[in-house]
Amino acid sequence: MLDGFTLFLVATVVSGVATGVVGFIWRLQPSVPGVRDWAFGLGALTVAMLATWLRHLGMPLAPSVVLTNLAVLLGYALIYRGSRLFMARRVPRHQSPFILFCVVVLILLYYFSAVDRVDLIRFVIMALVIAAFDGLIVATFWPRKRAGHLASGYILVVGVGLHGLVFLGRGLWGMVVLAGGPVGGTDLVVGLGDLTSVVAFMTLAMGFLALTAEHLLRQLEALAAQDPLTGVFNRRAFFAVAEHVIVHRSRTGQAVSVLVFDLDNFKAVNDTHGHAAGDDALRHVVTTARGALRGEDLLARLGGEEFVVLLPETNAGAALRVAERLRAAIATAPAVLTDGTRLTLTASVGVSTAGPQDRGETVASLIARADRALYAAKAAGRDRVRAEGAAPPRDVTP
User: Fold this and answer.
1) Distance between the two ends of the chain, CA-based, in angstroms?
2) Known EC number(s) (predicted)?
């Protein structure tokens, strides 16, 4: 193993490089949550490493200890906060308990530096504090739900977890020595700590870089699947998700239904009030539709003023009830335009269902059937629901 001086020198250099890498990420992608805290947190840890060198240049012990460990506490706190922000976890609003904790730690470190110098006690205190922070960071990135979990988080779980275990071992070793146990292994304990610190800084830089890249990739995928005007799925994304539901239905034999609805006389809205008002009206309809649909229903925009809804595990009767609730919600919730105009909208809805016996149904065929029912509803006078079946589509609107 390298000697302690060389390891500490390498750790200082690597911490500076890690700070630069994450700072560069922050400058490139300032909108990614938590990256700024990561950059400043690593910067504070680099300051802590540099402050340690001041001790070798003649800086008194007590001020050096306080400055170094203040930077360590601040650095870890910022990295932990940034990690929670990145993972969309709640960040405590009140910082008083943490500030009090830091004050107590710094007072103890000062006392055992300037009043009653016991280097090993300081060693134990900071080893356990660092291990605790490492544990909090690992817990933040520990996979809880498969959906939404970022695979890059495993880099931090492994690297920071290893660092935390080593520092926990350092703290326990120091406590054993303080209790009168054997003093052997000092060089090994210190050397392992310095070595894992090098690994931890490299892990943090690589992990933060990988997490940011994965986060941005998921954002791009979400944008590619989203209708830019209304925020619901676009046609391509709807077909991709719906095909999985249809395949699952063919295995389980459960019914699945599709609604296709179109806003009546919507061209007149654009011609009378302008396309901006039409866009507002479409967004309003989406909001209204979401309130009328169930949590498991999948809403997408096919194009223009035409939308489609996939109803998993829904038979014909239940689909008709959902369709009527949707039609009524749109008809009874006027859109309020920016100029205060209340715009009453109506929708015609077509319904199709694939039952257990309909093995050959696809997403495209269900939409085509629902589309035929939709046009039958339009022909019958609009603002109504029609169900498509083997017989001619029937009007189910009261």
Assistant:
1) 83
2) 2.7.7.65
